[in-house]
Amino acid sequence: MQHTIDLHESLQIGDRVHTTSGLQGTITGITEDNVCLEISPGIVTTWMKLAIRDRIEPDDVEAEEPEADEAELVADPKRLPKD
C-alpha cells in the first residue's frame, strides 16, 4: 500500500502512466485527488489518482512500439480488416 501512496504523491505532469484498467496516457494536469490524462493527441480525460497503477518508464515505452508489420498497417488504413 505504501508503494501506491508513494507513486501517487510522486506523479508529475508529463509522466506516462498505466491505469488499473489498462489505459495508457500522459499526465497533463494534477489535483489532490485527480489526474488529467492525454490518451490521444488532444484527447484529455480525468481520472481519480487511485486509478493510476504505475508509471511507464522510458525503457517500457520502447518495448511497446508497434512491430514493423503493425506499423505498416497503421500507416496504410486500406490494409486494415473491414468490420
What's the quick description here?
This protein is of the alpha+beta class and 83 residues long. A five-stranded antiparallel β-sheet has the order 4-3-2-1-5, covered by helices on one side.
Describe the protein:
By secondary structure, the protein is an alpha+beta fold. Helix content is 28%, strand content 34%. The chain has a domain at 2-57: SH3 type barrels (Roll). The protein has helices at 2-10, 58-63, 68-75, and strands spanning 16-19, 24-30, 34-40, 43-48, 52-55.
What low-confidence regions span 5 or more consecutive residues with pLDDT below 50?
none
Shape: elongated
Report the span from N to C terminus: 43 Å
Radius of gyration: 15 Å
Q: What portion of residues belong to β-strands?
A: 25-35%
How many β strands by DSSP? 5
Strand sequence of the main sheet, in spatial order? 4-3-2-1-5
Q: Largest sheet, if any?
A: 5 strands, antiparallel
Mean pLDDT: 83
Q: Please work out how many helical segments DSSP would assign.
A: 3
Name of the CATH class of the domain at 2-57: Mainly Beta
Give the class from helix and strand content and strand pairing: alpha+beta
CATH fold name of the domain at 2-57, please?
A: SH3 type barrels
Order of helices and strands: HEEEEEHH
Give the % helix: 25-40%
Return the CATH architecture of the domain at 2-57: Roll
What topology emerges from the helices and strands here?
Elements: H1 2-10, E1 16-19, E2 24-30, E3 34-40, E4 43-48, E5 52-55, H2 58-63, H3 68-75
Antiparallel strand pairs: 1-2, 1-5, 2-3, 3-4
